[in-house]
Each structure stands twice: as structure tokens, then as C-alpha cells.
Specification:
The structure is a homodimer. Chain A has about 350 residues and is of the alpha/beta class. Chain A has 14 helices and 7 strands. In chain A, strand 3 and strand 4 form a beta hairpin. The radius of gyration of chain A is 23 Å and the shape is globular. The interface between A and B is large, with 48 and 48 residues.
């Protein structure tokens, strides 16, 4: 005779069914018991997140938010993953230049392709924005969306960040990954709203952040519907900007693609100012947070806390920092608020 | 002593918890036992839907589709609700003209506003497209997205269709409402992809179809981020087209807003041809369906089945019908396939 432990009672069978059929449900239950943000130090930033989730999800709370309205938006570069020394998508474009020149050899002696091919890093870093744009157009448009996806996927699988020697997709911040999961476990829908290319980020967002393509809003070009030589429908990426998803373009993009004002938003730069402002201006419970890069040892330090003038601190200027204080946005100090920065630490 | 029936065993407690916590799960189980499409007559159209759902959701089926890829798109006007005698959004715009003229009295003697104010229905119906566009621009742009939402909501609550004397939002097809629910109960994400105005449809789509704003893709204009006189952020609807979500614009809009190719699509007109084509051209299980309006008694008849020349049948032409046959799209005959047309029948 088998012991009681071995015989599945109806209750045990139901529990097993539940474990198979509704993992999300069990995850919620587990979350309620343990710290949902183990990579965060105790402090005002962690407290702001936990309090916001509690007061918006507790039925009967005066700041309760119904589940369909639990929309949260995250900037990507510098907020969810490393943006220094240069955006990974720009590196992708530079890495694609040799292939572009192989297909069109006449470009080999034309700027800016000539400089990129030279491999002279300092000269490449000095390329002005309008020259860089020629590289972006040549490497991000003119192909079908499937061809682009195949090329970018191949690159993401093989390219390595120069400092950590790891795939770019591993350079995500563990504390922010915890915030994404914590919010989703509490019925929030998490979106990326990035100045980066929408088609590029969509390739890895599901695998890397658990965010499906339809929840990635980014800078987007026109695509053109047509047919290939076999008469099969294709969408071709055109060199024409449709949505510049940066600064004022972020709330505009949110309205276009989501159609609801977020209740919480996370950013790290002047490009996120309008998104944070717009989020905070809605009624009821609101959370706006900005990541301050002040940890030169574990990541980079380029925020105003370094005492540098605005022109030297990159995207997180002193005026943004002042705005944060004035507007009740919560600053996340990488150095003080994060116990760990990366999963591989 | 209470009977066994009254004492909640651990198993019963779990079952009760499950009933409270996971209604979606139970809904799926219930669906499996009853007819999910009671307003459909037995026939090839109903069969196509049921077979598609079974083969794409049965684990181990050669045509199984993982849940994140279960994207289905529906045209709205003529596919989910009545589009005759004129699109309801156009009626909204015409109804708004008196208010526009009150705000700008100089328009009273300017065409096409003068004709609309005259109330002469035949003259209004004869207005050429470029004149009608002036009405759309004057009534759909120049205000904040919140002001537009408030006005359109008020109109939707009070306006009545001339034939059925009911709110437009009640003129949805019951059989299609069943398809939406049946698909969602089986893990499909349902989207509206409409040539109509995205901001307009988003106002009622959640209430009417259970489709949230972020799952409505429609014709969209530019919005401009700015500040009102109190310094509060606002988005203003600009008279500039961003996405013409009709014909080739439908797959383009799907790529922009969803980023995945649908596995099933439903339409009813030439404006849906490219969406059906694009959907069908993907690999694996695919379903493409078009609604044929052939029921003058219960709704309207304006399809090719009426033996009218293409120029007289409106949007569903003989060539579209021929395409459907050639491309293995399933035609839904309102007359033969639908037991009931409206919930109020």
C-alpha cells in the first residue's frame, strides 16, 4: 500500500493541475511572501516602487488602479540596459558597413563609409550626426523586415560589448528586470518606449525583458507593402521617418501605439522628460523615476552628481536633475540603490 | 455534524480558490463543452473557424501556434458592425458641424459647411471626397485628445441609427462577437485594424468588443505634445495624416503597431485585401475570412452575389470575391451562415 504522500488526493490533483495550468497565479502568491526586489537596497527608491504597487493594487485603496489601466513605460538605453560608450544599435549599423560596401563597392571611397571602413575609432567617434545618419539609412532601410530581422538576430548572437566581453543582451540591469517582473506579477502591462529603433528592439525584447513586440514603442520608419519576385507580399523598410520616439515624441508615440496615459514611467535622460511629465500629469496614483548613472566602478558615472557642467554629463543634465526634485520624480542612484547591477555580477 | 458536502476539504478549498482567482481558466473549460458559436448555422464558415482554433491550440498538433503568436485582426466597419448607409464616424463629423460653425461663424456661408448646415441630405450625400475631408479636418482635429474623447463619448451615448433607432454601438454582429470571445477564450489576442479613426474607435472598443485601446489600429493623425495655459501637458490632434490604415496601409499599420504577422484576419471589403493576403502568406496555420453582405432583410445586401456590376456593389467587388475563391479565403454569407445578426434581434 502506498503512503498518503504518494496517493494524489483530489486536492493534490487540483494543486498539481493548478501548478501546470496557472504558473502566473503561483508566482503572484510566491511574490507576496518574499522580497520582490532582492537586488535593491532599502531606501526611498525601493520604497517608492513597493508603495506604488501596494496602493494601486489593493482593492478599496483610494489610489486603486483597475487592471486595464495599469500601463507602465520604460525607456531602454540607460534605463533597462547599458548605453555607454555608444548605443548598441549604432554599433550594429557600423558593423554592417562592410557588407553594405560589398553590395555597393562604389561606396568604399565615399564618406562616411570610407572612415568607418578605416577602423579608425577616433575618426569614427568624430563623425557628425548628419554623416552618422547616412550610415543608419544605409544599414537599417532598403530591405524587407524579415531580412533585417535575420541580420540583426545574427549580430545580436555574436557581437560582444568591449568592456564586459558579453552579448549586449546580457547588459541589462538586474534591479530593473526585477521591477518589470514585480509589476507584471501585479497586473501591470510593461512597455518599452525607446528612442532606439522599434524594429531592432522588438527582435530581442521578448527574450530579454519578457516584453512582446506589440509592447515595444520606438523610433519607426515607414514600411512599404509590396510583392517580391514570386508575388509574395513583403514589407520593405523605407528611408523615411514615421515616428521620432524621443522627447515630445515619447508621449506622442504612447498615444499612437498604446492610447492610454501610463500610470508609471521610468527613464534616465532628457529624452524621457516629456514622458515622465505626461505620466505624472494624469490623475490618481503616479510614479515617475529616473536612473542616475553615478557608479563608475560597477557601470559608468555620467550624471550631474559628478559635478560636471551640463555640456559634459551627456543626457542626464543638472536641469533634468533639478526638474526631478521639483516634479517629485524619484531618482534611482545606481551606486546607492542597487545591491547588484548585472545578473552576471 | 455537517455532511461531507458542507465541509470544504483541501481539494474543495483549492477548487473554490481557483474559481475565484482564475475565471479565464474555467471559461475555457466551459467552452469546450458547449457550442462556442451558437449564432452560427452549421456550414463551411463555422467549420473553418472551429477547425482553425482546434488545430492551432491543441498541443502536439502539427499546426499548433504558441500563445504569444495567436494574433487575430478584424476590420471593423462592415465586419464587426453595420457600415451602411454611411460610416458612423462620418455621421459624427456631420453632426459636429453646427458646433464648429458656432465657434467660427464665418464658416456658415463657406462650402461644404453651408451644405451640411442646410440639412439637405441629398446634397450632403453628393459632396465630393475633398469637400468631405474639410469636414473631417474641422471636426476631428485642432482639439486635445481629451476634448475629442469627451465630445465623441457624448455623441455615442445619444446618437441613434436611422433604421434600427438604436445607438450605433448596438449594431454589432452577434456572430462576430462570439468569434471574438471564442478566440480570446483560446488564448488569441484580438485586434481591430480599421480604416476608421483610431482615436474614435478606441473610445468604445473596450466596452463594445472587449478590445482595449492598445489593440485598436486605425487611421491616425499626428498629435503634438505641448502645454495648456496652466502649463499642463496636452496632446493636440493635428490636421496631418500619420497612418492611412486602409488597403496596403493595413499590413503597414499592423507591422508598426503590433510587429507580428496575424495568423487569422477577418474583413469585408477591398480595403481588407492586403491584410488578408499578408496574413495568409505567413507559414503554418492561417485563416482568412470575408463577410459577404447578402441579407437585405436582416441587414443590407451589397455584395457581388447580387449580380450587380463592380461599380454598384460598393466595397465588396466581384474581383474581391474571385480573389477569395482563388486565395482560399472563406466567405461568410450573412444570409446563410448567421442564425442571428444582432443581439437585439
Amino acid at each position: 500500500m502506498r503512503s498518503m504522500e504518494e496517493i494524489p488526493s483530489p486536492g493534490r490533483r487540483m494543486a498539481m493541475l493548478l501548478a501546470v495550468a496557472a504558473p502566473g497565479l503561483l508566482a503572484v502568491a510566491a511574490h507576496a511572501q518574499s522580497d520582490p526586489l532582492p537586488s535593491w537596497n532599502e531606501g526611498p527608491a525601493k520604497q517608492a516602487i513597493v508603495s506604488f504597487v501596494k496602493e494601486t493594487t489593493t482593492p478599496g485603496s483610494p489610489r486603486f488602479v483597475p487592471e486595464p489601466e495599469r500601463i507602465v513605460t520604460f525607456d531602454q538605453d540607460g534605463t533597462l540596459w547599458v548605453e555607454k560608450p555608444i548605443y548598441s544599435q549604432v554599433i550594429y549599423c557600423l558593423d554592417r558597413v562592410p557588407a553594405v560596401v560589398r553590395a555597393k563597392p562604389e561606396l568604399a571611397n565615399v564618406e562616411p563609409f570610407k572612415t568607418v571602413l578605416s577602423g579608425d575609432r577616433e575618426a569614427i567617434a568624430r563623425l557628425p550626426m548628419e554623416e552618422l545618419e547616412k550610415i543608419l539609412v544605409a544599414t537599417l532601410t532598403g530591405m524587407s523586415v524579415e531580412e533585417f530581422r535575420a541580420e540583426a538576430t545574427k549580430w545580436l548572437d555574436t557581437a560582444r560589448d568591449p568592456r564586459w566581453k558579453r552579448p549586449y543582451t546580457e547588459l541589462t540591469y538586474l534591479p530593473m528586470q526585477e521591477v518589470l517582473k514585480y509589476l507584471r506579477a501585479n497586473g501591470f502591462k510593461t512597455y518599452i518606449v525607446t528612442g532606439g529603433g522599434q524594429d531592432f528592439v522588438r527582435i530581442y525584447a521578448e527574450r530579454v525583458y519578457g516584453i512582446p513586440p506589440e509592447q515595444v514603442v520606438g523610433t519607426a520608419g515607414v514600411t512599404k507593402y509590396g510583392y517580391d519576385k514570386d508575388g509574395k507580399p513583403i514589407l520593405t523598410k523605407e528611408p523615411k521617418l514615421l515616428l521620432n520616439d524621443d522627447k515630445a515624441g515619447k508621449p506622442e508615440g504612447i498615444h499612437l501605439m498604446i492610447g492610454r496615459r501610463p500610470v508609471a514611467a521610468f527613464g534616465n535622460s532628457g529624452g524621457d522628460r516629456e514622458m515622465l511629465e505626461y505620466t505624472k500629469a494624469g490623475g490618481g496614483a503616479r510614479l515617475a523615476m529616473i536612473v542616475l548613472h553615478d557608479d563608475a566602478v560597477r557601470e559608468y558615472a555620467y550624471g550631474p552628481a559628478q559635478g560636471l557642467p551640463d555640456s559634459k554629463v551627456g543626457t542626464f543634465s543638472q536641469s533634468l536633475y533639478d526638474d526631478a526634485r521639483k516634479s517629485d520624480w524619484t531618482v534611482i542612484s545606481m551606486k546607492n540603490d542597487w545591491k547588484r547591477v548585472f545578473a552576471f555580477d
